[in-house]
Design goal:
321 residues, 0% strand
């Protein structure tokens, strides 16, 4: 008897084989880029996604000595306490007010700076000015608050000049009514220069032939700005606005914490400082986790609502429909 030849393994379908080969080609082509992004992915996973498992404490009466596994579950009792707490609602109100002020007074500044830098022809001057406005981004909030204290504090440059001329002084650094404008000014000085990078990239992507054609047709600088530059930046502006609204409940934990004693709790208490003081400092970790989870869910709702609004105006937002 002749031995029978074993059946050959089935060949993969042509479409699946083509798809597999394309993935191999892409992996081989982008291997170096993937290795470059690997540390960032690991950091994001370790410091952003792994800590999310700790949100289970929001539904527990968490005991630091018992840990996650042995702390008793109490359901949504922490959230009931949160919604009945007037201090929490005051912190939420402060957060929304400061975020609204920053949205109106801070968000347009990087756009305006990018438009101004785009008009600077001299490369050396442009590089120098960009370096100057980028620099405060690398300062810590302690240094930023110190600089403003030296300028606007009771013994700062402004009040020294007012005393020298016999005028009444104004210690802005300890004025609770001016605090929301003060923290907005600090954020503008520190981050506006860094924020122009995205908008400069959007300006660089605009076809320069459009400007030449508009100039040939007699369009002036303002008409070119209105009809070419701003429409070319609209998609990026909407995207950054969506991201800003999603981050509206995060108005600067360290910035508020440093200036809390100067202006008082009523002016500086925001959701982040509320979760810290009433959660970590008071050893009530479950209550702080509930406040943090409430903030996260509300931020997600803001992102989705802003993105839906962007779609209604014909923009992509964070993702296409």
């Amino acid at each position: 008897m002749t031995a029978t030849k074993p059946d050959a393994p089935p060949r993969p379908a042509p479409a699946a084989a083509d798809r597999e080969s394309r993935w191999r080609i892409r992996l081989r082509r982008d291997r170096s880029l993937l290795f470059m992004t690997l540390p960032a992915v690991v950091l994001l996973a370790v410091f952003a996604y792994v800590p999310m498992f700790g949100l289970v404490t929001a539904f527990q009466s968490y005991d630091i000595y018992s840990g996650f596994w042995y702390s008793p579950l109490i359901g949504v009792d922490n959230f009931r306490r949160l919604l009945d707490d007037p201090i929490f609602w005051h912190a939420l109100q402060n957060t929304l007010v400061i975020s609204a002020v920053q949205l109106v007074l801070y968000f347009p500044v990087p756009i305006a700076l990018a438009l101004v830098f785009n008009e600077i022809v001299n490369a050396r001057i442009r590089s120098f000015v960009q370096s100057v406005v980028y620099l405060p981004h690398f300062f810590s909030w302690v240094l930023v608050v110190t600089v403003f204290q030296e300028m606007l504090g009771g013994a700062g440059a402004l009040n020294t000049m007012l005393r020298r001329h016999g005028w009444a002084t104004w210690d802005i650094m300890t004025d609770p009514d001016a605090f929301k404008y003060l923290v907005t000014a600090q954020a503008v000085w520190k981050e506006a220069g860094w924020g122009i990078i995205v908008f400069l990239a959007a300006l660089a992507a605009i076809d320069q032939n459009l400007y030449e054609a508009a100039a040939a047709d007699g369009a002036g600088r303002w008409r070119r700005l209105w009809h070419i530059t701003l429409p070319g930046m609209r998609g990026v502006i909407v995207l950054m606005l969506v991201l800003r609204l999603g981050n509206a409940l995060t108005v600067g934990f360290e910035q508020m914490l440093i200036q809390r004693q100067a202006v008082g709790r009523d002016a500086s208490e925001v959701l982040d400082t509320f979760a810290y003081y009433y959660g970590v400092v008071n050893n009530n970790f479950s209550y702080g986790a509930a406040a943090g989870l409430f903030k996260g869910v509300l931020s997600l709702i803001l992102v989705l609502a802003a993105n839906k609004l962007a779609h209604a105006f014909g923009e992509d937002g964070l993702y296409r429909r």
